[in-house]
Amino acid sequence: MKRFISTIRNIFSIEDLRIRILNTVGFLLIFRLGSYIVLPGIDPSKLAGEAQGIFGLLDTFLGGAFSNASIFGLGIMPYISASIVLQLLTVAVPYFQRLQKEGDSGRKKINQYTRVLTIFITLAQGIGYLTATIPAEAIVMANRTFFTGSSIVILTAGTIFCMWLGEKITDKGIGNGISMLIMIGIVSRFPAAIIAESLSRGMSQGLILVLEIVALFFVVMAVVMLTQAVRRIPVQYAKQVVGNKVYGGQRQYIPLKVNAAGVMPIIFAQSLMFLPALIASIWADTSDMAQYIGTTFSDFQSWQYNALFASLIIIFTFFYTAITINPNQIGDDMKRNGGFIPGIKPGKATSEFIDGVLTRITLPGALFLALVAIMPAFASMAGVTREFSQFYGGTSLLIMVGVILDTLQQIESYLLMRHYEGMMKSGRLKGRSQNVAVA
After folding, report:
1. Run means of pLDDT, 10 residues per run, the chain, 439 residues
2. Which residues cross the membrane (predicted)?
3. What does the pLDDT read at residue 258?
């Protein structure tokens, strides 16, 4: 406990770090406040309540702003959608590939395209949001055309403001701003989920609640292990004698993460899981099979739903890993820089070796990621309330763990730069102080 208190004291004794943490807290408070400001012309008492399905997932990310019909009703999600589109374009379109290789100037252009695309996506999603999620009786404004137009403008402005908040957190605060906004929305639902679970259990089942919290702790630890797991490939650089100095000869490594795809496979798979029920609903009145498919794939506890969900996650994990990590480029960069893997010939043999290692570590990572994704279904089957079961896995838990670890690593880097050892004594975060080969 003394070490923990000492760590907190060391953190706030660094003026720059203290200001960044306070800035982050302030920006997050503004974001949470905006999620409770309802759109003009809506009676909040007549809203439908918590959203379900894909809307429920969005509502979790936005901390209830989606179901509250707030000015931040779409939040940062259109920006994330635009970022995913631009990321895929950098793989498929040569023009965006060239921009990505141009350094800072190329990244600035890609960011500009992302922001413009965010506006168009927000306009399109705003129309769907107003027509599909807000009940007609909740709209108290007489002029529906004016209400729709003004609400779309407000939602777009709210998304742009959330995007600005995220950039300010990254620039003036601590951690990745966009990820922090999503994480705070998820964390804000946790106290209500705990209270709902406690009320459902009652005093007579207090031991079961304790066991559920213990199980949640071990699930979180397993996700931390998945997030931090790295396969290190040793790299040796040849020595070069220039005049009286010797360059190179260092032994470094290439870190290949077991879960290199992160949370993206779950997001992609989740977006496709609503297609079977949506398509089946078209013929639900005329076909018993369509009605069965719609019912089955609308129930996230059914084995058919979870089997398809897990399969899609495994496929998307391999797909996303393949488009984000290029073994051929890594092998070529190593060859140009005079690096080689001991026992492996430079060039094509090195690329094939890296590709083989990447395939072997991606399979168990994909299987474990699929298991984490369907854990809420098992928790719900075991009697856990729907709100609390969402924290036993899935996108929410992976985002929380990833963002918290990234933020802690940034704080630790400040402590290391200022020669404070408080956090280091409390437990060093893996992979911060060793040489990494830049491919």
Report:
1. 73 81 90 87 73 60 73 85 81 81 82 90 85 77 84 91 90 84 83 81 76 87 86 78 58 84 77 70 69 74 84 87 83 80 83 88 89 85 80 78 82 71 49 44
2. 21-39, 76-96, 116-134, 146-166, 178-196, 208-230, 260-283, 303-325, 357-379, 391-408
3. 87
What's the per-residue H, E or C state across 334-355? HHHCCEECCCCCCCHHHHHHHH
Structural domains of the chain, count: 1
Residue 229 tokens read as 């797991």
Residue 143's Cβ-count burial label (10 Å; 0-12, 13-18, 19+) is exposed
Instruction: Give the CATH number, domain containing residue 64.
Output: 1.10.3370.10
**pTM confidence score:** 0.74
Is residue 157 one of the residues assigned to a domain? yes
Token pair 């965010």: residue: 118
Q: How far apart are CA 237 and CA 338, in angstroms?
A: 6
In a domain, 383, yes or no: no
Residue given tokens 């259990």 in the structure block: 201
Amino acid of residue 71: I
- Pick from 42, 88, 405: nearest CA to 229: 405
Asked, for residue 33, whether it belongs to a domain, the answer is yes
Strand arrangement of the beta sheet that strand 230-237 belongs to: 251-257, 230-237, 339-340
d(CA 84, CA 4): 38
Range of the domain at 125: 1-188
Cβ 390 vs Cβ 193: under 8 Å: yes
Q: Report the amino acid identity of residue 439.
A: A
Q: Which residues are CB-contacts of 268 (< 8 A; sequence separation ≥ 6)?
A: 312, 316, 320
Cα–Cα distance measured from residue 19 to residue 416, given in angstroms and rounded to the nearest whole number: 17
Q: Which residue has the tokens 């073994």?
A: 327
Could you give phi then psi for residue 76, rounded to 5 degrees? -95, 0
**DSSP designation for 42:** B
Determine the Cα–Cα distance for residues 356 and 350; give it in Å rounded to an integer.
10
How many Cβ atoms sit within 10 Å of the Cβ of residue 251? 11
SS3 62: coil
How far apart CA 82 and CA 122 sit, in angstroms, is 10
What are the DSSP calls for 235-268, one per residue? Answer: EEEPPEEETTEEE---EEEEEEETTTTTTHHHHH
Token pair of 48, please?
A: 């439908």
Residue 291 lies in a domain: no
Other C-beta atoms closer than 10 Å to the C-beta of 115 total: 14
